[in-house]
Each structure stands twice: as C-alpha cells, then as structure tokens.
C-alpha cells in the first residue's frame, strides 16, 4: 500500500489519531514519507482533489496497448459514478478491450472512443461531488436519460445555491445477464445497487 487516507470529524480528532497511526505503521516496519503528508484544505489522493466541500477528479489518458486501455477503462469505471455518464455512453471505450488478450497488443482509439474521452474530460472539468451533509436526508432519484435508467444518490436543500448535491451517480451494468427485462426489474436492480 502506498496511499492512506485518514478522515476524522474534526481537525483535533485527526491530530490525536495521527501519532497513533504513525506508531502503528512504524511498529509494523512501514515507512511514512512525512513530506507527502497533506493536512491543508486542498488534498490530492488517488487522482482526486479533496476540497473543503467538494471533490474534483483529475483525468489524463493515452492508449497504445491493451494494458493502457485496461488502465484507462479502469480509471473511467472508477470515476463513472461521479461523472454522470451512462454505461451506454462509455461503450466505445469497452470495445478497446476486445480482441488480442496480450497486454502489449496494440490498441488505437477510434473516433467514437476519442469522442467519449472528450465527454469524460468535460465531465471531469465541469462536475463535482459533494460531501454528505448529515443534517439533510439522502434521497435516490431515478431518471431515464436517453432511455437508460440512471439513479442519483443526492441531497436536496432549498438553503443551498446548488439545490441538488450529487453524492453519486448509479448505473446498471454495461451488459445485463438477461437480454429482455421488464422496466420494474431494471428499476429494482438499480435501487438494490443504490
């Protein structure tokens, strides 16, 4: 493990935890690079900027081999619940994984894949995820953009300038196990996933 995220309710609590954590890590023979310890309001963790009230994702890409494509699709799959892009929109990227299974086999981005990457880049730049506010109820909203069921886990408050704070977007899998499913089955799967 080379990255650890420690979160506490207050800065004082975090200050109490830190010496204990450092001692526990050192007693197990693990080293901590003190210059990498971040306690400022802007924190970077696994490609994410953690701000005081929001989380912003960072995204870079280049694809030459199957291994590159797997890494790219993995990152986007991980970001996907925060970007609001459906699995159908990301489909051209999944196509990069088809074919020769040798990790060094060449891959080229199709025009459709380039377009999806541009959409992902726009979403990364424009969208943000909010921290949960424990005083506000969490709600699941189900929508049907482009006839693809989508859920939004969020919080709504008239007190906020941005009334809806999206905590996470939830999508059905790219390939369902059954080819024909009733709408109520799809909604039930989406709710269970939420």
From TrEMBL:
One of its GO terms (molecular function) is RNA stem-loop binding. PROSITE patterns: RT_POL. Residues 1-50 form the Reverse transcriptase domain. It comes from the Eukaryota. Pfam families: RVT_thumb. Transmembrane segments: none annotated. Keywords: Endonuclease, Hydrolase, Nuclease, Nucleotidyltransferase, RNA-directed DNA polymerase, Transferase. InterPro entries: DNA/RNA_pol_sf (IPR043502), Rev_trsase/Diguanyl_cyclase (IPR043128), RT_dom (IPR000477), RVT_thumb (IPR010661). It is an enzyme of class 3 (hydrolase). The keyword Transferase applies. Its EC number is 3.1.26.4. PANTHER family: ENDOGENOUS RETROVIRUS GROUP K MEMBER POL PROTEIN, RNA-DIRECTED DNA POLYMERASE-RELATED. Belongs to the beta type-B retroviral polymerase family. HERV class-II K(HML-2) pol subfamily. This is ribonuclease H. It comes from Zosterops borbonicus.
């Amino acid at each position: 493990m080379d990255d650890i995220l420690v979160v506490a309710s207050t800065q004082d609590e975090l200050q109490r935890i830190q010496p204990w954590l450092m001692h526990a890590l050192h007693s197990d023979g693990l080293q901590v690079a003190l210059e990498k310890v971040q306690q400022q309001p802007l924190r970077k963790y696994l490609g994410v900027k953690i701000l005081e009230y929001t989380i912003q994702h960072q995204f870079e890409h280049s694809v030459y081999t199957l291994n590159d494509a797997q890494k790219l699709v993995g990152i986007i799959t991980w970001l996907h619940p925060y970007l609001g892009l459906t699995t159908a929109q990301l489909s051209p990227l999944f196509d990069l994984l088809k074919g020769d299974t040798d990790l060094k086999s060449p891959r080229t981005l199709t025009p459709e894949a380039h377009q999806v990457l541009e959409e992902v880049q726009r979403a990364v730049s424009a969208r943000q995820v909010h921290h949960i506010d424990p005083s506000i109820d969490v709600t699941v909203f189900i929508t049907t953009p482009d006839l693809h069921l989508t859920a939004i886990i969020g919080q709504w408050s008239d007190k906020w300038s941005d009334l809806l704070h999206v905590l996470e977007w939830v999508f059905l899998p790219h390939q369902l196990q059954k080819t024909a499913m009733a709408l109520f089955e799809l909604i039930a799967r989406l709710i269970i996933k939420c």
